[in-house]
Amino acid sequence: IYVEWIGYGDNSMSPYDTAWLAMVPSKTYKKSSSAADFELAFPQCFIWLLEFQESNGSWSGTGPGSIPSSLSGLQALGLFRSRSGQYFERNLLKFGSSIYNNIFQKAIEYLRETLNNWNIDELYMVGFELFIPYHLDSLEKLEPSVKFDFPDKSRLLKVYQRKMSMIPLETIFALAAKKQPVSIIHSIEAFCNTFDLSRIQNEGFQAMNGSYGSSPAATAAVMIHASKWDDKGYEFLKKILNRCPSYAETQGCVPCICDVGIFETAWVTQSLSGIMLNLLREKYFKRNKREVKQLLEKNNAFVVYLKALLKEANGKLRRSSWDNRTPADADDTSVTRWVVRQFDANSEDDLDPLIQTFYNGKYFITFPLERTFSISCNVHVLSLLILEYKKIKARGITSMLFTVKTKSQKVKLELIIESVAKFIMEQRSKVAIWTDPWHKSPGYSTFKAIDLLLSLTHHPEFLSTLTTLDVAGLLSFCRKSVDWTLKTQHKDGSWGESSKNAMGNLEETSYFVRLLKTSYRYYPEDKSIQASLLKGQVYLKDHLKEAMNTHGYFHNSEPYLWIDKQLYTMPRVIKSSMLAALWEN
Fold first, then answer.
1. Using CB atoms within 10 A of its CB, is residue 583 exposed (0-12), middle (13-18) or buried (19+)?
2. Which CATH class is domain 15-242?
3. CA distances from 224 to 29, 185, 230, 324 (A)
4. In the prediction, which pLDDT does 287 show?
5. Which residues contact 229 (CB under 8 A, 6 or more apart)?
6. How far apart are CA 339 and CA 380, in angstroms?
7. Does residue 246 surpass a pLDDT of 80?
8. What three-state secondary structure class fits 18?
9. What residues does each domain of the chain span?
10. Sign of torsion, CA 31 37 38 44?
11. Which pairs from 165-172 meet CB under 8 Å and 24+ separation?
12. What is d(CA 168, CA 198) in angstroms, rounded to the nearest whole number?
C-alpha cells in the first residue's frame, strides 16, 4: 500500500496518537488564541474520542498499557473545554454530542483507579517515563484543573528528572544542525514544556514527508506548541487521516508509526526465507511450476529492493521509508543485510558501518547513543555475522578485522561473535526465557535466541572460548527454554495472551511453533516436542484461512504485542510467521 510521501505498511491504529491530533487547533485560532475563533484542525479525531471510549473509561483496554492513551484522550477533552471558554456549549453542539461530561468524568475515574494500582515497573511503553509526567503536568494546568495523586507518582517523577538530566539536548540540536538524524524526535511531545518546539521546525528534525520522527503524536505536538503554523506537518497528518484503513469503523484514527515500510518488508522476507530457499531447489518446480516461479520472482523483487535501499543508505537502514531524519538502527540493518546475503551470495557486504556504529565492545545497541539493549536485535546481528563468517571461511580467508570504537586495536570477527553470543546467553531469565523492549511477548525473543544458539552447535570452535559448555552443554542450556515452552502451551494448542476467541493467540503461537520446529531437529527422539509442535500447528491451521482473508482480523481479534508509545500489531509480519511455522520441508 503506497501513498505519496507517506510510505507503506500495515500497522494498527493508536488512540494515543489520535488524541494528540484531536488537540491540534485550526490555523486561525493558532494566530489569534481567541476563544471566539477556536476550531480544531482535525475534528474527526475529536469525534473518534467521543464515539470510541470504552465502557471502562479508557480508550485502549485495561491495565498499565492503557494509561498513556487515557491521559492523552483526557487532555484532548480538557483542552477543548479550556480553549472554547464561553463558547464551549456552542462548539460542542457542532459535534452533536451531549455526553461530553460523562466521557470526561469516566476517563478521570478510570485513570484514578488505574494509577492508584500502578507499579511503574510494570509498564514497558517507549518513553513512558517522559511523556506520562508531561501529561500529568499538562492536565493540572487545565481550566478546570485535573490532578492525579497516586502511590508511585513520586518515584515516577524521580525517574523522569533523572532521565531528563541524562538527555544532552544541546548536543542533539548540534547534531540536527549538521543534518545528523536523532532518535529523540520520535518522542518529542514529551519536551513540550522543556524548550520551544519552534527550534525543531527545520530540516534537521523534520522529515521529507513532513513528519517529526514518523510519529503522528510528535508531529501534532509541534503543530500545537511551536509558535508558527507548520504547513508540512499539517499536510502529513491530513494525508494519514485520509488513508482510512479498510477495517476501521470510522475515519478519524491514526497509527503510532507512519510508516513501517522497510521494517515490514524485511521481517516478512526474513520469515519466508526458509520457504523460498526450499522452493529454489529443483524438485519443487514439479509442483505447480507457474505459481512457484511467481513466488520466487516476487521474493527476488523484494531482495533487489532491499539491496537498493542498502546501497542508497550507505549500508545502514531505518524502519521507515520516507523519514530521512530518523536514524538508522542495527535491527533493520542486520535483518535486511541477512536477507540480501541469503539470496544474493555475490552481493557486497561491508560490515564496518554496522560494527563501528552499533557495537560497544560487548553487544550491539539498536540506536546510536542508546543506553539499553534488545535481545532480538543482537540475535539478528549475530545471525548476520555468523552467515558472513561462513562465507569468509568458504573463500579460504582465515579472519577479518574490524575497528571498534571502544577498542584501541582492531578486533577479529570471531571475537565479536563470541562476545555477543555470550551476552545473549547471560541475559536469559531464571525461568529460561528472554524478554525484549520492542515486543511484549517472551515468545518472540526466546524463539529468536534459541533458533540462533542451537545453530552454534555446528560451530564448536566458538564454544571452546565462548563458555565452558561443549555441544552437549549448549543443548542442555537450550533445553530449559524448550521445556518452558512445552509447559506454557494452552489446552487448545495455542500460546500466549488470550485473543478474542481463544485461550492464546496466533502471533505468539507461531513463534513457539517455530521454536519447536528448530528444537525437534536437535532433539529428534523427544516425542513431547513433536506432540506439542503438531498440536500448535493444528491450532494455526484451524485459524489460517480466517486470519489470512478477513480484513482487520489482527486489528480486531488478536492482542497487540509490538511495543512503541502504545502497543501495536503488524499483520503481515504475523502472517509470514504463521506460514513459516506451518511450512514442511
1. middle
2. mainly alpha
3. 11, 15, 9, 23
4. 58
5. 27, 30, 31, 223
6. 11
7. no
8. helix
9. 15-242, 260-427, 428-585
10. negative
11. 166/371, 169/194, 169/195
12. 18
Rg (CA), the chain: 25
Give SS3 for 59.
coil
Closest C-alpha to 60, from 116, 125, 3? 125
Supply φ then ψ for residue 544, to 5 degrees. Answer: -65, -50
Return d(Cα 46, Cα 95) in angstroms, integer. Answer: 9
Backbone dihedral region of 179: left (phi > 0), alpha (psi from -120 to 50 degrees) or beta?
Answer: left
| Predicted pLDDT at 7 | 60
Most distant CA atoms of the chain, gap in Å: 80
Using the predicted structure, report yes or no on whether residue 508 has a pLDDT greater than 80: yes
- Report CA dihedral (14, 18, 21, 23) to the nearest 10 degrees: -130
Q: How far apart are CA 288 and CA 522, in angstroms?
A: 32
Alpha helices in 98-178 (DSSP H): 100-116, 128-140, 153-166, 169-177
Q: What is the mean pLDDT of residues 437-464?
A: 94
502: helix, strand or coil: coil
The rounded distance, in Å, linking the Cα atoms of 42 and 331 is 34
Assigned C-alpha cell, 210? 513532513
How is residue 461 written as a grid cell?
570452535
- According to DSSP, the residues that pair with 278 across neighbouring strands are none
Which amino acid makes up residue 521?
A: R
DSSP state of 60: S
What are the residue ranges of helices labelled H in 289-359?
Answer: 289-312, 330-343, 352-358
Do residues 403 and 355 touch, judged by C-beta distance below 8 A? yes
- If DSSP states are collapsed to H, E and C, what string results for 200-239? HCCCCCECCCCCECCEHHHHHHHHHHCCCCCHHHHHHHHH
- Grid cell digits, residue 174: 548540534
* Other beta carbons less than 10 A from residue 364's beta carbon: 29
Three-state secondary structure readout of 45-89: HHHHHHHCCCCCCCCCCCCHHHHHHHHHHHHHHHHHHHHHHHHHH
Buried b / exposed e along 251-260 (16+ C-beta atoms within 10 A): ebbbbbbbbb
What pLDDT, on the 0 to 100 scale, is given for residue 555?
A: 92
Distance spanning both ends of the chain, measured CA to CA: 31
- CA atoms of 164 and 167, how far apart (whole Å): 5
Sign of CA dihedral 183, 186, 187, 191: positive
Q: What is the pLDDT of residues 375-429, one digit of tens each?
A: 999 999 999 999 999 988 888 887 788 888 777 788 999 999 999 999 999 999 9
Contact status, residue 110 vs residue 70, Cβ threshold 8 Å: yes
Mean pLDDT of the chain: 92
3-state DSSP assignment of residue 372? coil
pLDDT at 2 exceeding the cut of 50: no
Q: How far is CA 97 from CA 42, 46, 101, 103, 281, in A?
A: 16, 11, 10, 10, 63
Q: Report the C-alpha gap between 55 and 47 in whole angstroms.
A: 16
Structure confidence at residue 322 (pLDDT): 79
Q: What pLDDT was estimated at residue 9?
A: 82
Residues 6+ away with beta carbon under 8 Å from 471 = 457, 460, 463
Asked if 424 and 379 count as a contact pair (C-beta separation under 8 A), the reply is: yes
Bridge partners of 505? 495
Cα 34–24–47 angle (5° rounding)? Answer: 105
Which residues 6+ apart lie within 8 Å of 550 measured at CB? none
Q: Which amino acid is located at 405 in the chain?
A: K
Q: For residues 325 and 260, what is the distance between their CA atoms, to the nearest angstrom?
A: 14
